[in-house]
Amino acid sequence: MKQMTCIVCPVGCHLSIDDNLKITGNRCPRGEKYGIDEMTNPKRMLTSTVRTTLSTHPRLSVKSRTALPKGLIFEAISVLDDIIIDKNVKIGDVIVTNIMNTGVDMVATANIQFDTHPGRTI
Q1: Residue 51 contacts by C-beta under 8 Å, 6 or more apart in sequence?
Q2: CA angle 81, 85, 88 (to 5 degrees)
Q3: Which of 38, 75, 86, 106 is the most interior residue, by most CB within 10 Å?
């Protein structure tokens, strides 16, 4: 029997899952779905950074639009290590489409603006 705490909502139900994926301890159907998903195909959101060529902001924060399979997180981070941003980016812009063929996009969580007029003070 596996024990875990449901993180779908703030209640934090204490779930028990047996070998047949029978869930007990959940107060709502979401807890049952979470327990089954966590036992069969756990997923996690990924937050990370990518490099930029902008000296004042050398890193741009990114996150996965939805959760990725937990077993692919470190490989996805390796993909992000090779990304270098050299253009303006707005929050929500897709930085990597369909990372590792998961159907999940990595999106910017910050804006960066490259100076279009070097040497000009605004």
Answers
A1: 58, 59, 60, 83, 84, 85
A2: 155
A3: 106
Domain with CATH 3.10.530.10 in the chain: 47-108
Q: Which amino acid is at 93?
A: D
Q: Please give the CATH architecture assigned to the domain spanning 47-108.
A: Roll (3.10)
Q: DSSP letter at 22?
A: -
Q: What are phi and psi of 68, to 5 degrees?
A: -105, 155
pLDDT in tens, 79-99: 999 999 999 999 999 999 999
Round to whole Å and give the CA distance between 95 and 71. Answer: 21
Between CA 116 and CA 121, with CA 118 as vertex, the angle to 5 degrees is 100
pTM (2 decimals)? 0.80
